[in-house]
Amino acid sequence: MQDSFTGFPTCLCGARLPSEAEWVALLGCHRERLRAFDHLVEVAGECGIQADQDRHFFVLPEDEVSLLEAAGEPWSGLGRALRNFRRLLPLVSLTLFGFEPAGEDVFENNPPRLVRVGGGVEALAFEAPDASIYKFFFFREGGYIGSRFSYARGEDGLIQATAYPGTYRQLLEKLLLVSRIGVPTEVVGISPEGVMIVKQALGEPLPQGMDTSTVLPPGLIAIPSRFLRADRDHPRLYFLDGEPWLVADLHARNLVRCADGTLRVIDLVAGAWPSELTRGDGIMADWMARVRLDPAAGALPASPDDEL
Ligand SMILES: Nc1ncnc2c1ncn2[C@@H]1O[C@H](COP(=O)(O)OP(=O)(O)O)[C@@H](O)[C@H]1O
Ligand SMILES: [Mg+2]
Asked: Which end of the chain is less congested by CB atoms within 10 angstroms, N or C?
């Protein structure tokens, strides 16, 4: 299938869920994009190029280093790494979607083929004529985008997880997590201004205020409240490719009912688990080792979070 705005290959159209094979390919694409970004940063480092914000790398045009490539390695490697990253995260003009990037408030009015369906702090969501959802993640002051968790150990010994604006790489990680445990989500590209453009299958909203704690996806492990406190709803531990993550903000507005009847996550706040804070804690390490082998092992019977 071709995306109706960009012409790029896509496995998403309206509420349709991808086949098993398409889903696997979609997740592979998310992982490959992250690897390509890391490789780009690594080779740039070999060339003596560093950036205080990863946004600078995210918006680098494909031909930015072409003149330097003639100098041989590591510059030619940088050119290859940049082209590979751009293949996986193309620069896409917002004008393709009918927006006027030069305007005062780019997303204020619906463009001809998109209808705003929601959004707030991180992204604006629009529905297209084919019922696909497009999200535009805008960046904030300092070049931050999306969200992440930062951690500190409180005086009571508890780990406090606090949601903060994140980096572009952390947004790619979050979108991988959403695709893995929630609604299939494609990264369409990034606008030259730095707006991340994402496509998602359409779902049906859930009743406002519905308690989602008992309908969360399998593999999300309830965290005993004596271990960690988060400033977002329903904090859960999740192992992605063997690595522990904190995943939260799983309230009713961040879940939808999909075409196959399942309830799935469309949005979340995630952070790599703070292993440096938990390593020395024997009880927590023991719990993590148990639930890593069997996510159901440490979970108490389904109950609202505050009873854990
Ligand atoms: N895949 C989707 N299907 C249906 N509605 C959606 C979808 N994605 C987003 N929305 C609507 O847009 C709102 C905001 O989207 P979300 O991804 O949660 O962005 P934000 O980061 O701003 O919370 C949702 O609460 C929902 O009403
Ligand atoms: Mg949300």
From this structure: N
